[in-house]
Amino acid sequence: MATSKSNLSWSANSSIAAKHSIPSSFLSLSPSLLPVRRRRRVNLNLRRDTAGSLRVKAMATAATATEVGEMRTREELKKGIAELYDESSGIWEDIWGDHMHHGFYDPSQEASLSHHKAAQIRLIEEALRFAGVSDDPSRLLKRMVDVGCGIGGSSRYMAKKYGATCQGITLSPIQAQRAQALAVAEGLADKAFFQVADALEQPFPDGQFDLVWSMESGEHMPDKRKFVNELARVAAPGGTIVIVTWCHRDLSPSEESLKPKEKELLRKICDAYYLPAWCSTADYVKLLESLSLQDIKAADWSEHVAPFWPAVIRSALTWKGITSLIRAGWKTIKGALAMPLMVEGYKMGLIKFAIITCRKSE
Ligand SMILES: C[S@@+](CC[C@H](N)C(=O)[O-])C[C@H]1O[C@@H](n2cnc3c(N)ncnc32)[C@H](O)[C@@H]1O
Q1: Are residues 30 and 62 in the same domain?
Q2: pLDDT tens for residues 147-172?
Q3: How far is the CA of 75 from the centre of ligand 1 (A)?
Q4: 76, 77, 149, 224: which to mutate for ligand 1, most atoms within 8 A of CB?
C-alpha cells in the first residue's frame, strides 16, 4: 500500500495533522484521493489578505463553470445528492445537531464541539447581519424560503427568532421528513414546512418571500444561472437574497481558467460530494448584476471558517464517528475520506467560503 505517492504526501499530511490535532493516519487513508498534496509544505494559516467584506467587481466569466466537475448527468447528480443526504443526515445530526454547515469563528480561536455548534449559529447571525436583515420588531421578516434546507436548522431558527413562516426544500426525502418531525416536536408545526423539491424549479409562485436563504446548497447546483434566477423569482419585491456557498477563487485578469492541479483537486471533491462545476464569487456577482438586483455585496469568509473541517475530521475519528460512518454507508465514508481535500483546497487559496447577498427592487 505504501506507494511512492503516499510517502511523498506524508510530510505534508503530518504537518496538517499536527497543526489541527488530526491523527495523521487519517490523512493517509486514501492516498489516491490526495496526490495533489505531494511536494507541498503545508501551512494551514489561510491567507489573511482575502478576508473581510468587499464589493467584488465581476471580472471572471462563468466559463470556468463548464470546465470542472461535469462528470455526471443532472439526473445522476440529483439522485446522488438525495442518496448522499438520505444516508448521511442521521449521523451528522447525531454528532453535530441541526445545522449542516460551517461555523463562523474568530481567527485562531480554539474550539470544542459545543463551541463549533455555537459557531454554526454565529454563521447564521453573521449572514443575517451582513445582508442587513433587520431585528427591528416593526420590520421583522414574515416569509422565508430555505433553499436546500437540510434537516431544517435555519428554518426553525428563523421561525423562532422572527416568528417567520418558513418553507424548506431539499432533494432528500429523509431530510424533509426529519425536518418536519423536528418542527412539530419544537412546536413549530404552523411555522415551518418542508418538502422534497428542486431549487432549480421551485414549487412556489413568484414574489413570495421576504428572505430567500441558501445556506451551503449553491455548490450542488448544476446551473448557477437558473439557480440565481429562481432565487430572484421567488423573492418578494424588496426581499433579501442570501447565498452562502463554496466557490473557487476568482480568476486574475490574465487567467482564462484554473490551473490543472486546482481542477484536479476540485474534480475529486466533486466526485465525493456530488457537486457539479464550481464557479467563483465574481461569477455569482455577475449573475446577480445581470438580473438587476440591488445592493449586491460579497465577502470571503474563508478565514473565519478555517477551524471547521479539521473539527469535522476529528469528530469522524472518534469511536462513535467511525462506527456511525460504517453503518451509514459507502457514500458517507467516501465523503469522510475526502474531507482533507477541503482543508487542502482552503489552504491553497483555491476554495473560498463566500457570502453573496442582494435585494430585489421594490
Ligand atoms: C450541506 S446541506 C446544507 C443544509 C442546510 N442549508 C443547512 O445549512 O443545514 C446541502 C443541502 O442542499 C440540498 N440540495 C442540493 N441540491 C439541491 C437542489 N437542486 N434542490 C434542492 N435542494 C438541494 C441538499 O438536499 C441538502 O439539503
Answers
A1: no
A2: 999 999 999 999 999 999 999 999 99
A3: 16
A4: 149
